[in-house]
Amino acid sequence: MPRFAANLSMLYPEHDFLHRFTAAAQDGFQAVEFLFPYAFDAQALRQRLDDNGLSQVLFNAPPGNWDAGERGLACLPGREQEFQTGILQALDYAEALNCPRIHVMAGIVPQHQARQSLEQTYLTNLAWAAEQAQKAGRDILIEPINTRDIPGFFLNFQAQAHHIVAQINTPHLKVQMDLYHCQIMEGDVATKIRQYLPTGRVGHFQIAGVPLRHEPDLGELNYSYLFDVIDDVSAACQWQGWVGCEYRPARASAPNGTRDGLAWLQAPKLK
b vs e for 31-40, b when ≥16 Cβ sit within 10 Å of the residue's Cβ? Predict the structure, then answer.
């Protein structure tokens, strides 16, 4: 079985955010991820991790004005200074939380602007971010996201992301391979795991059921099979990363809705 990290931005909505660390640990998770830590003091988050024996394995760099609909700055010309300030802030949090990976969202293509016109800004920003991450002993991740959840998002396909990582050519820039987004945009998920994981360019996986983004045992993807594929390929290429559980519990409104939906995590259920 792969190693699973609870995404605390989506799991345990029945608890206040700071109480989700304890809930995840009680359910057997040894690691967590979330979207953004910046509303909380870094040392307070570190204390929650330490108190519950958890590792922080991923969070996102500042995405711009999230409430206004922005979903990253990396591809946006004219926002370079804000992008760099955000990366440095994220690296400070990564140091405090001992987190090895920072996801950098690409951003939404502005109306009436060609996608190709943004590529050089994206490459330049990522190269700079990866250089800063190298100095800090961290990795920058980029994630293809489906156009149904985020219309107009700059980065949508695995091949696109891997081409960008190969162009920049540093071990501190990798792909965050979300199998939910991958299935929606292109399918053939098992083949893509076998294709890309041995390249050394995959830094992290994420999972959710398709199409409703609920538990992975709900929907059209056979995660039992995909977990075996990850295990087999990981053993062959010595990959030791994490699989983030970035899904919305189907019974989110129930008092123990997240815990009630974790039957998929039990090994006998996967065979």
Answer: bbbbbebeee
